[in-house]
Design a protein that fits this description.
Elements (H helix, E strand, L loop, with lengths): L11 E5 L4 H12 L3 E6 L2 H11 L5 E5 L5 H15 L4 E4 L14 H29 L3 E6 L12 H20 L5 E6 L20 H9 L1 H11 L4 H13 L4 E2 L6 H24 L1
Parallel strand pairs: 1-2, 1-4, 2-3, 4-5, 5-6, 6-7
Helix pairs in contact: 1-8, 3-4, 4-5
The chain binds nicotinamide-adenine-dinucleotide.
The site of nicotinamide-adenine-dinucleotide has 32 residues, from α1 and α4.
């Protein structure tokens, strides 16, 4: 896949969720293209293992960062600036999932997924964007949403709500930054191989009993199978860097969902036309 390596050579990136899956693959792809990367994650044990395995000490550093906590993101930003001087590419990628039936969720879990998936992205932008604009060089804010930020299924409402919010937030940010050297992209993948199916183990109300129940649930096993059989994170990361180099806003990876987009648009427009017809006839 094309994408000029000059876009990333010698530039600095901050990547959240860098210890696993998509964030780790993006880190590796950036390093291969000559970028410097601050890897940020709550899982510092795993970060350490992955950072050492890459063996690129002059290009890589790591920092503990809980994206749901603004003070933690500010501290991670300060560590990044101390190490690399400036940031060109901000990857707000860390995310978690939560499945269940509406009416039976713990409100604390809803708050948690909102704090990580939506506020984590907002915290990244609030902490890093002023500095990215101030240095005046080209860069990009890359927010990881999901195909679940466009199309919905049952029993994933917190995930869908947060990912729709990330898509909307990213679009608004794109409009705001049109006349600046900072571009915006939003990643909207379907199934990419990672550990995302285990993310709800991090939820505040998780217990050993709940974890055992969750892993025995057929819906969990079906999701795990879809993720395990998904696109490799490396292939997706290459597409991401190519898309950033081409200043593409949406990044999609799944040809099968095209007709479902058409169905959603048709349903919206059918209700739109029906409402206008009712207004005209009233
Ligand atoms: N894998 C997929 O199929 C898929 C599809 C669509 C979107 N996504 C999104 O991609 C992003 C990356 O997920 P992934 O699939 O690589 O999963 P993953 O679980 O392999 O990686 C997520 C990483 O985020 C970290 N993390 C979790 N909470 C955090 C927090 N509060 N602060 C900092 N780090 C935190 C985890 O420790 C982990 O290392 C997520 O936003 C996810 O919603 C994934």
């Amino acid at each position: 896949m094309g994408g000029s390596s000059n876009t990333f050579e010698g530039k600095a990136a901050f990547v959240t969720g860098a210890a696993s899956g998509i964030g780790l693959a993006i880190t590796k792809a950036l390093v291969a293209k000559g970028a410097n990367v601050m890897m940020a994650d709550i899982d510092t044990a795993r970060l350490t293992i992955e950072l050492e395995a890459m063996n690129a000490p002059s290009q890589l550093s790591m920092v503990h960062c809980d994206t749901s906590d603004y003070a933690s993101v500010e501290a991670a930003r300060d560590a990044t600036l101390a190490r690399f001087g400036k940031v060109h590419y901000l990857f707000n990628n860390a995310g978690v999932s939560l499945a269940g039936r509406s009416g039976s969720f713990e409100v604390k879990d809803w708050q948690w997924i909102t704090d990580v998936n939506l506020m984590g992205v907002v915290h990244g932008v609030e902490a890093f964007l002023p500095g990215m604009l101030a240095h005046g060089e080209d860069g990009c804010v890359i927010n990881t949403a999901s195909m679940a930020g466009h199309l919905t299924t049952a029993y994933m409402s917190p995930y869908h709500a947060t990912k729709f919010a990330v898509v909307g937030y990213s679009e608004a940010l794109y409009h705001e930054l049109q006349k600046s050297p900072i571009n915006v992209s939003v990643l909207c993948p379907t199934w990419v191989k990672s550990n995302i199916y285990n993310a709800s183990l991090l939820s505040p109300t998780m217990t050993e009993d709940k974890a055992a129940e969750m892993s025995a649930n057929p819906a969990y096993q079906a999701t795990k199978a879809l993720v395990d059989n998904g696109m490799s994170a490396e292939t997706f990361a290459e597409l991401v860097l190519t898309s950033i180099a081409k200043k593409r806003f949406f990044v999609f990876n799944d040809p099968e969902v095209r007709p479902v987009f058409d169905m959603r648009r048709d349903r919206i427009l059918a209700d739109f036309d029906a409402c206008l017809a009712d207004l005209e006839s009233s």
